[in-house]
Amino acid sequence: MKIGKRVAAVLCYLILVSLFLGFRVGELLDVGQLLLVLSGGIILYLAGMEKEDWVKREKPDGTMLARDAVYASFIVTFVLLFLMLSEGRMAGGEKALPEGTAYGALAGAEGRSFMRGIALNMRPLLYGICIWIALGGDGGRKSDTGEKKKNKEPWTAQEAFQRFLELGLTRREAEIAVQACKGLSNKEIALELNISEATVKKHMSHIFEKLDVEKRQEIMERLT
Q: Which of 69, 29, 50 has the alpha carbon at shortest distance from 174?
């Protein structure tokens, strides 16, 4: 429900901006570019998942998916601009530049068409930002909540999990870090998460390195 409200808010704001600045909001929509950003975000997100995540089939992390969509939007925008500048391809049905045309010599209608092509090819960045607002907009608020909890009530497992993600751990590493904060041994964590003890040891090594700690007891200290 919250995602739906955010999407509606983004659309309403785009309409308001278009009315205020005097342009057609329909020009901002290109289904092909939007699908490229969405599919790129999904591909990058799936590539970052670990084997255990596939087995458990957990609910997708909206924040991580939104982040990957932003990355994809930069890639799509770069490729579109590269093709435009190197091959004269124009977006939105614009007339392609004549072969051999020097960009410095553009003037009049051709110059306006060129600038319009650049603007249309930058729409994927807008899509990436909108996806981030819709799916990952709570990240900063959760971080603020984490700061407010310092020296107050104990962390819940979900809050600790989110904080570990913000500190750079993967989803699996964050899960293991939460279990370690509960005082569980590697063997107990393996049983709890239905993975091998060797896998837990490997992840613990990565956790120690990323959090720059040397003892398990120091993991909890990184939450504050």
A: 50
* 41-72 as b/e: b if 16+ CB within 10 A: beebbeeebeebbeeeeeeebbbbbbbbbbeb
**For the chain, percent of residues with pLDDT exceeding 90:** 21
Please name the residues in contact with 145: beta carbons below 8 A apart, sequence gap of 6 or more: 159
For residues 195 and 184, the answer to whether their CB atoms sit within 8 Å is: no
Rg of the chain on CA atoms, in Å = 23
pTM for this model (two decimals): 0.54
